[in-house]
Amino acid sequence: MPLFENIEEFQNVSAGVQWAIFVVGCLILAVAAVSIGISIWLSIKYVVYNRKTNSHFLCGNDVARMILDRNGLQNIRVSVVGSILFGNSYSHYFKKVRLRRRTINKPTITSLAIGAEKSALAVLDKEGDKDMRARVVLTPLIYLGPFAFIPIVAIGVLIDLAMFNFSGLPTIISAVIGLCFYAISFALSILTLKTEKKAQARACEILRQENLATDEEIEMMQQLFKLYNIQYINDIILEFLQMVLKVLEIVAKVQHNSGSNSNN
Predict the structure, then answer these.
(1) Per 3-state DSSP, what percentage of the chain is helix, strand, and coil (rounded to 5)?
(2) Is 6 exposed, middle or buried (0-12, 13-18, 19+ CB in 10 A)?
(3) For the residues 22-36, what does the mean pLDDT come to?
């Protein structure tokens, strides 16, 4: 959403800020384009590995249930979910591991990887991992944050639509509120990446120890996890750039309002 409606409104904004907004905007477009490419490549790998049957014929439900039970987590349910918002996930509050339909009942490499990784999050939770504890505390905000770049952008756009047509204090306050949303998103992205990487490592460790996957299968799983992690990192970069852009918007609006007031 543009900060200014027409070119005249840039007259009181310094050239440095204007150029910074332009550069950051271009970077956001570039990173967004890379994100699309990563998502496509991840989807291809997901489908390819979801067509490869694993050596123990374990579907996502089987491996998740096995790992949970062997770690004393019989109270955690494994359920099917079709939601785009939640997807494959672990919920501390609902005491469940959620797996998509195409993951939960297929004995494939993808199912093995996702089922093991999401149940490993529950194991980390039980063990009191500090990053996992922080993630649990912030779970209500998780879905407004990292994973959640789209909801945060939508909120920012609504704020802009509602407030940026006005000048003065309300506009600045709305910009600061928008910045807070992006800051929360950025912090939760980092936290999510840390816990997911720990769960991925733990999943591979458990599968090796229990002889539930061959070395070749674990290598394929790690390739899949690597793409997920690259996607997380890309989201973190996008959220950081969004924060920078929001700061520049605040600075630009302050300069514009100050200039307008001094001319009156």
Answers:
(1) 75, 5, 20
(2) exposed
(3) 91
The mean pLDDT value of the chain amounts to 80
Q: What is the pLDDT, as a whole number, of residue 145?
A: 44
Higher pLDDT, 228 or 172: 228
Q: Quickly list DSSP for 187-250.
A: HHHHHHHHHHHHHHHHHHHHHHHTT-S-HHHHHHHHHHHHHHHHHHHHHHHHHHHHHHHHHHHH
Q: Name which residue leads in pLDDT, 93 or 137.
A: 93
| Cβ atoms of residues 236 and 189 within 8 Å | yes
Give the length of the chain.
264
Please tell me the distance from the alpha carbon of residue 24 to that of residue 196, in angstroms, as a whole number.
29
- Residue 249: φ, ψ to 5°: -65, -40
Phi, psi of 143 (to 5 degrees): -80, 0
d(CA 258, CA 12): 8
